[in-house]
Amino acid sequence: MKHYSQLGHTPITTRFTGMGIGEADVISITKAGFISEFEIKCSRNDYLADFRNKGYKHKAMLKRAGVKVYPSGEVWYKSANKFWFVVPENLIMLHEIPEYAGLIYISENHLSIIKNAPRLHKHKATESLYKKIAHNLMNKLIYGCSYMNYRRKENQKILEVIEPPNTN
Fold first, then answer.
1. Longest dimension (CA), the chain
2. Residue 52, Cα to own-chain centre: how many angstroms?
3. Per-residue pLDDT tens digits for 29-44
4. 30 and 8 Cβ atoms separated by less than 8 Å
5. Residue 133 CB coordination number (10 Å)
């Protein structure tokens, strides 16, 4: 069993969709430019539903489909270089994991690699993908903070109605 830190990279962003990659729970890129996608599952039903709801994605990985390069030079990813399922310890057994996927168990404060994900293709992340991820992070920062400020102000209004400020 390997420890997660042996992957050699850290997550870059969460809930990423773009450039052909269909909604990744977590996506990261190694120093060498290879993309890993981490699909987080909290229940067996969630795991099984992934194959029903995202069948196209799993078919592409089974075929080890890499990228599609358009005449304009634009690259669309049919899959990440590596694909992992991340689940609570023993939720999914090793024999249930498709050949194209890796398995990571998460416990209270530890991630353990149970099965290393095979490399599905050799196509590295392009500058456009890095820019898309940066845009994704910027939007989360701007709109996330804006939304949090909005919620804080709305909550303050509710509190003032429930318990008006003391003006004495």
1. 73
2. 18
3. 888 888 888 989 999 9
4. yes
5. 21
DSSP state of 104: E
**Contact 102/84 with Cβ under 8 angstroms?**
yes
How many Å apart are CA 79 and CA 61, to the nearest integer?
Answer: 6
Token digits for 37? Answer: 């996608």
Enumerate the H helices of 26-164 as residue ranges: 44-53, 55-62, 127-162
Helix (H, G, I), strand (E, B) or coil at 81: coil
pLDDT tens figures, 55-70: 667 777 777 777 788 7
CA dist list (Å): 46 to 8, 41, 52, 110 = 28, 6, 10, 21
Tokens of 18: 């773009």
